[in-house]
Write a structure and sequence with these properties.
The protein is of the alpha/beta class. The chain is 33% helix and 18% strand. The strands form ten sheets. It has a seven-stranded mixed barrel. A five-stranded parallel β-sheet has the order 6-5-4-9-10, with helices on both faces. It has a four-stranded mixed β-sheet with strand order 1-2-8-7. Strand 30, helix 30 and strand 31 form a beta-alpha-beta unit. Helix 4 packs across helix 7 (225-232).
């Protein structure tokens, strides 16, 4: 913390103590317009003013922010130095690998390795490694936890080394919860006090859903691991001064509507309003009425509606939440007094704050909804889901599945045993026209109650074989998962799920055999209040046993389906569904065999699990029939006052304090992992999890400069996400990554996931652009990560083609469409692109984080003019590309893409270089953020 503060003031606290702080009201004497700034910008302004040093932060930076105009052109750069950094393990491991490699690089030139040190506190929550291998069983939690440790022991050993090697790094061991919920309930201080100086809590995190903390009035958002490393090392997070869109909420949620339904409507509204890259600030009487868990649900989905943040100003709701989650009285009072002293406490009244534009939403208009089947912004009112799914199923359009009229495949199978060969054996297959076997009445009550799918796992004991009828069809729900930070952080919707489960059990309903059910709470606090209210037993009775505390189904760690179900889906090409209380539903994200994925509230996840299919009209059709009596959803839906009566049990301060008092006690499995010691890491060249990356090696291909004689590695359409680009999910044995692992002696059952192997660039580069659902326009008729190598035209896996081009000395480009890189803040979508030899990505438009990550890895992002793309240019991939005018780049400069076609014709297209700030130009000139930081450390700066 600086000691010579601009606009310094003192704040007295209870007990006679006081702190110094940088006062916004004092700054407003020089810049009166500060009083009308959106609250989120005032919080950023405090950090900028507090770090004024004349070098990284100048007086002009303060002035540009203090004089922000709502509708002015955006050219000013904001150097925002955050108070702390939040990591999850998928991105945290490669980040610490990079820092370890930086220390190794400095050690090679006899430098002081201790200069590579986090300058701000860093919290790393291990939450992305648990997988739903075992479900719908009392032992699910313990077995999944054991399997997680067995698979990830080497990664966890590396993290333990990192905790002792770097100061200020705190690790939350596996089994405590999802980083965003743990951040909200425990890590966030509300106000940071360091060396007697108080400031607003602020952060960046290596997950796009870091924005969840905005619900508490904390400014923070997701960045790539590359930017997070720079922030850890004291570099400001630089961004263009943004538009701030006000979203005015009025009214009250109607009975039957949940916070999940609200956030799906908000996502639809704001995505349509094109708030990409903007700050969104919620205000109005409706916003003031929402409790912090409801606000956090909305803030969590900021990446889905495209905003940098979805911010709620701090107020008494925040104080109530801090107290209810176990923070002490002094912490709560500091939160209140500091924000009051800064003039930002309380929801702003209408007209007090100026916004770039204001959108209005009446909470009374919210109706029960889901979103899907492919994108989180595609909201569907609950009463229209069945009709919408049936229309998409038979549609030949871009969004459709092109299926014939649906049919039900009725199969009598032995669950837990190997499937019969196609065409005969133990399975009894019958195709029934749509409507004849439309609901679970084809099953006997005993089958519905007793026959639950159990996945076959090579590392699990043999499961007992059980006969069951599988009435699988297009639209069958094969995964029903209460999962993710978005909703499990919200006690109201979790209690609603438990109450609906209680009512279903009392009515005699159970999910059919083909539904894989799971509950992955965002923190142990959820289990505590579900057990105190007696609702966990009801969820268990429906198969929603707790499977782990972490990100599971929402990030693709859904685990295997029963082999019979998997085989039937593949053999008959069925479009089956997953219903999850998550935030992402992109193709192949949840499970590679599940094409339709719907986001829903936790109680609706339970309802769809009971129904066993998504094409059900809940208003007219029963969830099931018991003893000849139809049971409707409205018969089971809990009353609002019943949920309200249980909220007291959910927000028990003593329970939260007891849980997080044990956060440094990882338990016997964590304690049993030996940790290496020392300032530098001893790299193991035989490791398949943690390897020294090549970013500081002279063998890395050139980054800066003009690109001549390039070939296109891929030509992609609109809305290609980082889930398509970045390695994620299971590693296929026949993929380039799988072949590499087998060559190292790793058996397929021990492959683990791409996420678990993010510390190994050899695996990750082979999985880049390898998603089974990606569609490369250069390879028509193919689905998945393949591309033709030119000029011979051989169709190869993308990594194999890139390796051949590397041997030939041919640079590469990628051509993209609109919203290129939408999705999670995955550093490997940029790292893998760079390691494949891609020099530039030219697209219609970029998602904010991915564009910055490309720059951070030394890959040049460029944008086509409006209405120009690969289709309008008639590109097929046989062309040769020259990117001219980029020998030295500056922010938003013009450049030229010269296209030479196979017949010799040449076509020049103007493009805009999407290097947005001067510091980004410096990063690119040196090959990315990491070489830039290393250069500064070697020179004695930073």
């Amino acid at each position: 913390m600086p000691t010579d503060l601009r606009a310094s003031a003192r704040l007295d606290l209870p007990g006679g103590s006081s702190v110094t702080y940088c006062s916004l009201p004092l700054l407003a004497r020089d810049w009166p317009a500060i009083a009308r700034l959106p609250v989120c910008l005032r919080i950023v302004l405090e950090a900028v003013a507090r770090h004024l040093d004349g070098v990284r932060v100048r007086e002009s930076d303060i002035a540009a922010l203090a004089d922000w105009q709502p509708r002015a052109p955006r050219t000013a750069e904001v150097p925002f130095t955050v108070a702390r950094v939040l990591l999850q393990d998928f991105t945290g491991v490669p980040l610490l690998v990079d820092l370890a490699a930086m220390r190794t690089a400095i050690a090679r030139v006899d430098g002081d390795v201790h200069r590579v040190q986090p300058r701000v506190p860093v919290d790393l929550v291990i939450d992305h490694s648990v997988q739903v291998d075992v479900a719908a069983a009392p032992e699910a939690l313990a077995r999944n936890h054991e399997l997680e440790y067995r698979r990830n022991r080497e990664r966890y050993r590396f993290l333990k080394w990192g905790q002792q090697a770097f100061t200020g790094v705190r690790i939350v061991p596996p089994g405590f919860g999802i980083c965003h919920q743990v951040n909200l309930e425990y890590l966030a201080p509300g106000v940071v006090v360091r060396d007697g100086v108080a400031c607003f809590d602020s952060l960046v995190g290596t997950d796009s859903h870091t924005t969840m903390i905005n619900g508490l009035g904390v400014v923070g958002w997701g960045v790539g691991g590359i930017e997070a490393e720079a922030a850890m090392l004291g570099q400001p997070v630089s961004f263009l001064l943004p538009d701030v869109v006000g979203c005015r909420l009025t009214g009250q949620l109607p009975v039957g509507a949940t916070a999940t339904d609200l956030v799906l409507r908000v996502t639809e509204l704001l995505r349509a309003a094109k708030v990409v890259g903007s700050f969104v600030e919620f205000h109005g009487p409706g916003a003031a009425s929402l409790a912090v868990p409801d606000r956090a649900t909305i803030a969590n989905m900021a990446p889905e509606y495209g905003a940098t943040i979805g911010f709620f100003p701090p107020d008494e709701q925040g104080c109530r939440y801090l107290a209810a989650t176990g923070r002490d009285e002094a912490t709560v009072e500091l939160f209140r007094r500091y924000h009051q002293a800064q003039g930002v406490f309380g929801m702003p009244a209408d007209g007090v704050v100026e916004y770039s534009r204001v959108l209005d939403l009446d909470l009374a208009t919210i109706v029960p909804s889901v979103a899907g089947p492919r994108r989180p912004q595609d909201r569907i009112a609950l009463d229209a889901v069945a009709e919408r799914f049936r229309a998409l199923l038979t549609s030949d359009g871009a969004d459709g599945y092109g299926r014939p009229a649906a049919a039900t495949i009725v199969v009598r199978a032995t669950l837990g045993a190997a499937p019969a060969p196609a065409g005969g054996g133990a399975q009894e297959v019958e195709s029934v026209p749509d409507g004849a076997a439309k609901d679970t009445s084809t099953l006997t009550e005993t089958e519905m109650v007793n026959n639950r799918p159990t996945a076959n796992r090579p590392d699990e004991p043999a499961q007992p074989a059980r006969a069951a009828t599988l009435a699988l069809r297009d639209g069958s729900v094969v995964i029903a998962a209460i999962t993710s930070c978005t909703n499990t952080s919200n006690p109201a919707v979790m209690l609603a799920a438990g109450l609906l489960a209680r009512n279903a059990v009392a009515a005699g309903l159970r999910p059919p055999a083909w539904v894989k059910t799971s509950l992955a709470p965002g923190s142990r606090a959820v289990t505590g209040y579900l057990e105190r209210t007696g609702l966990q037993a009801s969820l268990d009775a429906l198969g929603f046993h707790t499977v782990g505390y972490g990100c599971t189904t929402c990030i693709g760690n859904s685990g295997p389906l029963d082999v019979h179900i998997e085989e039937l889906i593949q053999r008959h090409g069925l479009v089956v569904a997953a219903v999850l209380s998550g935030n992402r539903n992109f193709e192949a994200r949840v499970h590679q065999s599940v094409k339709a994925n719907f986001l829903a509230s936790p109680p609706l996840v339970v309802a769809y699990a009971l129904a066993g299919r998504v094409d059900l009209d809940f208003a007219r059709e029963p969830l099931g029939t018991v003893g000849g009596r139809p049971v409707m959803l409205r018969d089971l839906w809990p009353a609002a006052d019943e949920i309200e009566a249980m909220l007291g049990a959910a927000l028990d301060p003593a329970a939260y304090r007891a849980i997080y008092a044990r956060v440094q006690d990882g338990g016997p499995l964590w304690d049993a992992i030996p940790a290496r010691i020392g300032a530098t890491y001893e790299w193991d060249s035989g490791s398949t999890y943690v390897r020294e990356p090549p970013y500081f090696s002279r063998s890395m291909p050139a980054a800066a400069g003009e690109v001549r004689g390039a070939r296109a590695l891929a030509i992609l359409g609109d809305s290609v996400t980082t889930d398509h680009i970045s390695p994620a999910g299971a590693i296929r044995a026949d993929s380039p990554a799988g072949r590499w692992l087998r060559a190292q002696g790793v058996e397929p059952e021990d492959f683990n996931s791409y996420g678990a192997r993010r510390g190994n660039h050899e695996v990750m580069v082979r999985g880049t652009f390898a998603n089974v659902r990606i569609r490369n326009l250069m390879a028509p008729g193919h689905e998945g990560g393949v591309t033709p190598h030119h000029p011979d035209g051989d169709v190869l896996p993308i990594h194999d083609a890139a390796e051949r081009y590397r041997q030939e000395g041919v640079p590469l480009v990628v051509i993209g469409g609109a919203e290129y890189g939408t999705g999670s803040s995955r550093d490997w979508a940029a790292k893998g692109t760079r390691l494949l030899g891609v020099r530039a990505v030219i697209a219609r438009s970029f998602e904010r984080i991915h564009r910055a990550n490309l720059v951070g890895m030394g890959v040049l992002p460029c944008e086509f003019p409006e209405d120009v793309d690969a289709r309008s240019l008639d590109l097929d991939g046989s062309e040769i590309y020259d990117l001219l005018g980029v020998a030295k780049v500056g922010p938003r400069q013009a450049a030229t893409l010269a296209i030479t076609r196979s017949d010799g014709r040449r076509h020049e297209v103007p493009v805009t270089v999407r290097v947005d700030t001067p510091i980004e130009a410096e990063y690119l000139a040196l090959g990315g953020i990491l070489p830039y930081v290393l250069r500064g450390l070697e020179a004695g700066r930073g």
